Amino acid sequence: MNTREIFFRHQGQTSAFPLAMEIERAEGLYLYGREGRRWLDLISGIAVSNMGHGHPRIVAAVQEQAARHMHTMVYGELIQSPQTAFAAKLLPLLPASLNNIYYVNSGSEAVEGALKLAKRFTGRTELIGFNQSYHGSTHGAISIGGTEAWKAAFRPLLPDVRNLDYGVVDQLSAISGRTAAVLIEPVQAESGVTLPPKGYLEALRSRCAETGALLIFDESQTGCGRTGTFLALEHSGVVPDILVMAKAFGGGMPLGAFIASQDVMKVLTCDPVLGHITTFGGHPLSCAAGLAALTAMLEEERMAQVPKLEAQFRDTLKHPAIKALRSCGLLMALELERAEKTQAVIAAALDAGLLTDWFLYAPHCVRIAPPLTITPDEVSWACARLLECLDKDG
Ligand code: PMP
């Protein structure tokens, strides 16, 4: 059996049309396949590889930590220096009230923890999320996000969940004294990069404060410098009660976190004890990688480059087939007329050596979210290829 047969016959498939290139190694902006083929990574493994692939500092940190120790004990029992060192580096970058970090393994798991925390803290049951938000694939995460088409096959899901339309101020009156939490992305990614209207997040913050509902921001995709600031919440200045981090947070290793004030977080400590636990949460290798990625991003001053790179994409990507280009930093969606055209562009781009993608709830949009380490020359090259692909019929 060759590797293709094993992949298709013996690995669970997420769709009937995986990309299925065989990757031998990855370095910097590029993924390398067989026979010398390479692809410029325009999507960062879906907002993960913010510092590119194989960054020497991240690789060294993982190797050093692996030699020192890997897993020792379930999360929360032992003091492990990769976790504490990462927390110390992270805290000055967070709003002061978000001072208590609960490490987990992934975005979905961080969302589950955040929802449980809000229910436990408020003693309420209702959860509010937004149509076309993606927060993960676990039962809780799909209950609160998504679209009905996506959820229907998995019902019954969590009870007492409501979904509002993203960005519609009038609907915020649905948040009430029954609401435990409102979960939102400060920029909605999988709908094809939807920016909140001006004043919307502020209105949401006020409504949550009025009703005592906890506000949760999911910055899994928007965090870690992707939008040009460490967190996307810095664009509005709105501070949530709980923050969800994942994806780029682990520097390419699996890591997530939900972060709150110590006052809020401490309700998970008792009644029941061990009411939220995880074996591998805050894995030493993941925290070492996350710390190295964050340190490198700050020292290389990557966030300061983001607005210039975003502007270069915006200025260069002009084509009659592009209906809109929505962006927040290096999280961008090229909206085309039809999903078929988007699929054709993605396929042509792959042939031309460029890895792009679509969005879960916006199949007519091309995803552009390259590592923050992309250079202006690489932006020019990628845009020239994309424009050629857009010229082709499809
Ligand atoms: N939240 C958001 C905003 C996401 O984009 C994702 C993943 N695409 C998740 C949560 C879930 O993260 P994970 O796949 O690590 O569970």
In short:
With 394 residues, this protein is of the alpha/beta class. The chain has 2 domains: 3-55 and 301-391, Aspartate Aminotransferase, domain 1; 56-299, 3-Layer(aba) Sandwich (Aspartate Aminotransferase, domain 2).
Biggest β-sheet: strands ordered side by side in the sheet: 4-10-9-8-7-5-6
- Mean pLDDT comes to 97
Order of H and E elements: HEEEHHHEHEHHEEHEEEHHHEEHEEEH
- CATH class category name of the largest domain: Alpha Beta
How many structural domains does the protein architecture include? Answer: 2
* Shape type: globular
Query: Biggest sheet, in brief?
Result: 7 strands, mixed
- Which kinds of small molecule does this entry bind, naming each only once? 4'-deoxy-4'-aminopyridoxal-5'-phosphate
Q: Quote the distance from N terminus to C terminus.
A: 35 Å
CATH architecture name of the largest domain: 3-Layer(aba) Sandwich
Range of strand content: 15-25%
Give the helix/strand class.
alpha/beta
Description:
This protein is α/β, with parallel strands linked by helices. The chain has two domains: 3-55 and 301-391, Aspartate Aminotransferase, domain 1 (Alpha-Beta Complex), CATH 3.90.1150; 56-299, Type I PLP-dependent aspartate aminotransferase-like (Major domain) (Aspartate Aminotransferase, domain 2). It is built from 13 helices and 15 strands. It has a seven-stranded mixed β-sheet. α8 (200-211) links the parallel β7 (179-184) and β8 (214-218). The mean pLDDT is 97. Bound molecules: 4'-deoxy-4'-aminopyridoxal-5'-phosphate. Residues 46, 106-108, 111, 134-136, 185, 189, 218, 220-221, 246 line the site of 4'-deoxy-4'-aminopyridoxal-5'-phosphate (PMP).
